[in-house]
Amino acid sequence: MLLAGKWVDAAQTFGVYDPQDNRLIAHVPLSTKEDMKRAIDEAETAFQRHKDWPTHERIKVLKATVEYMNENKDLYAQTIATEGSKTITEARGEVKRAMQTLEISAEEARRLKGETINFDQNEGSENRVGYYYRFPVGVVGAITPFNDPLNLVAHKVGPAIASGNAIVVKPASVTPLSALLLADAFEAAGLPKGMLSVITGSGSELGETLVQHPAVKMVSFTGGLNAGEKVAEQSGIKHIGMELGSNSPAIVMSDCDLDDAVSSCVAGSFGAVGQNCIGVQRIFVERNVYDEFVKKMVFQTKALKVGDKLLHDTDVGPLITEKEAMRVEDWVNDAVDQGGQILAGGVRKGAFYSPTILADVPESAKIVKEEIFGPVVSVFPVDSLEEAVEKANSVDYGLQAGIFTKNLDHAFYAIQHLECGGVMVNDTSDYRIDEMPFGGVKNSGLGREGIRFSIETMTEPKVVAIKL
């Protein structure tokens, strides 16, 4: 692992397994609290040593990192697909996005500016001029999930480096290799020693140390709600950015392009095996097109190829572990026990769970209220847009949502009344570019990611007033 600019081992290791066949693919260091403390202390030292790190050098490092990744993009994609759940096609897409994330970070480093302040707006301050500028908070602590093991790390490291911070990353234990490869790229790009550490190991062992350490001035966390609540409780008075998942809705109006809505909902529900915080989990369809929509969606879903994720024609691979597939199976069975019907899928084989469509699921079912994080979507008929929006808002999450309609009034009603961080018109919730502000309301998190918005959280404004 990369600890303060040095590649080090630990006294113990743990295994990383391919979820497809449970094959051991690597041993990585099992870090201790002392390792994490050392990484943070070294990060603070490195930050103090590079407080005057010029913008042009930060840009140079970020661009060189992208070049290194591009030269080794096949290795990065193969690693993502092997240690995680994504197909090789999806993994290649993630590598491309991660490089874009770092490219945007380099661009935003140029735009890290303040503003002049008109002090003479206040009576008696006519003889004052000044401005504010933004400076880095210091050490950023980052905890990342398994579902985007490269790009979600890049979304934390890129803005941190662009704004002049040091950063310590604790990647998901099941997918640490992609984060280590990203660290390798930054090392090859000439990142100053100590400005980045990637510490592998158990979250229960390392997480509390990372978020509570007084030198860590900002915590960036992506993961589940329960873990996020612990992070918020433990971190104390410091900047916090948290993306905690969702239960995203799509609304399908009768005036939309139905074929486009169907294909978009299939992709949005089952991409990345549904292990996607903005994946579609609930679809509300206007009643007069409900039967046609469901028929077409079932047909397209049954046509998806489930299998070897390293084959180019595979659409859906395994979940991250067999335990997760069993949990998804239990949630579906619970919905069926309460009256739900399986229209497609509903079959588990090891860590694989077939893309599943449910109908007639009662709103009290867990699968309707909570985040399934698996390849399962529930469809519901509705009689009006108002009903669809009300039901879409009925959960404790609000990350993103989608609506399919050709009616501008319908679109803007949804935009104004859906309780979420982003509304996608004629697309599903499963749309994102890496530059846009990304985050949600309610239990979906705090703050926004997206490079410029992450940089704002990773910096502080300082006011300068000069009396003439």
TrEMBL record:
Q: What is its EC number?
A: 1.2.1.97
Ranges for domain Aldehyde dehydrogenase come to: 7-464
In terms of superkingdom, the source organism counts as Bacteria
- Alphabetical list of InterPro entries matching this protein: Ald_DH/histidinol_DH, Ald_DH_C, Ald_DH_N, Aldehyde_DH_dom, ALDH-related_metabolic_enz
Q: Name one GO molecular function term.
A: lactaldehyde dehydrogenase (NAD+) activity
Listed under catalytic activity are: (2S)-3-sulfolactaldehyde + NAD(+) + H2O = (2S)-3-sulfolactate + NADH + 2 H(+)
Q: Which UniProt keywords apply?
A: Oxidoreductase
Per its UniProt record, what Pfam families does this chain match?
Answer: Aldedh (PF00171)
Q: Does the keyword Oxidoreductase apply?
A: yes
- Reply yes or no: does the keyword Oxidoreductase apply: yes
The family line of this record is: Belongs to the aldehyde dehydrogenase family.
Q: What does this protein do?
A: Part of the sulfo-TAL (or sulfo-SFT) pathway, a D-sulfoquinovose degradation pathway that produces sulfolactate (SL). Catalyzes the oxidation of 3-sulfolactaldehyde (SLA) to sulfolactate (SL).
Q: What name is this protein filed under?
A: 3-sulfolactaldehyde dehydrogenase
